Amino acid sequence: MIIVASLAFSQTAIAQPNPDNAHTDLEFRLGGGVLNGTSLDNDEGVPRTIKMTAQIFADRLFPVTTIGDGVVEIGPYVKGALLDGVSVPLVAGGVILGYRFGNYEILVNGGLAYATERIGENTSDGSVHPGQTKQTYDLGLSLRYDIDQYFISAGYQHNSNGSHFDINFIPEKGSNPGYDNLFVGVGIRF
C-alpha cells in the first residue's frame, strides 16, 4: 500500500511544470535510541537504556505546489539502520512529505520497517520482556538546513506496531513498547 501511494504521488509530482527541481538526498545519521521511550507509565517494565544508532537515509523528493514562500514536496524514501547499540539491522521504506523554505526543509516520513531481531526481548537481569516486534511502522520528523549542495539535520524517529493506538497490522505479535530515536545527520543533495 505504501509503495503504491509513493508511486501515485510521484507520478503526480513528475507531471508538474518544473520537474528539474526534483532532488535526491543521501544522508548519514547518528543518534541515541531507547526502547519504550515515549511511554510515561512503562507498563512492560522495560529497562530504558539509551544506545547508539546509525542510519543511511535516502529520499527522492518532487515539488508538488507552493505555499507561501515555500515548496511542498513528496516522494519515496528508504532507510537502512543499525539500532540498539548498532547491533540490530533494520530496513524501512515509505512516503516522505517535505516543506522547503529558504535553506530549511521540514520532513515527515511514514512507512513500514523490518528488523532482524526483537529489540529488548532479553535483558541482562534475565527478565524476558515482549520486546520490539520485527515488523513495525516507521515514523519520523526531521529538520534540514542546506549548505550549498550539502545539509545538516536533526530529528526524531519512532518504530512500533501501533498496538497502543489499535492500529496493529500484525495483531498476533502482541503488544509493542516501540523504539524511539533522536539523531543528527549530514547529507548531500543530488
What can you see in these coordinates?
- The chain is mainly beta.
- The chain has a single domain (2-189), classed as Porin (Beta Barrel).
- It is built from one helix and eight strands, in the order H-E-E-E-E-E-E-E-E.
- The protein has one helix at 2-14, and strands at 23-35, 51-67, 70-83, 88-101, 104-115, 135-147, 150-160, 179-189.
- It has an eight-stranded antiparallel β-barrel with strand order 1-2-3-4-5-6-7-8.
List the helices and strands and how they pair.
Elements: H1 2-14, E1 23-35, E2 51-67, E3 70-83, E4 88-101, E5 104-115, E6 135-147, E7 150-160, E8 179-189
Antiparallel strand pairs: 1-2, 1-8, 2-3, 3-4, 4-5, 5-6, 6-7, 7-8
List keywords for this structure.
190 residues; mainly beta; Porin; 8-stranded antiparallel barrel; 1 helix; 8 strands; 7% helix
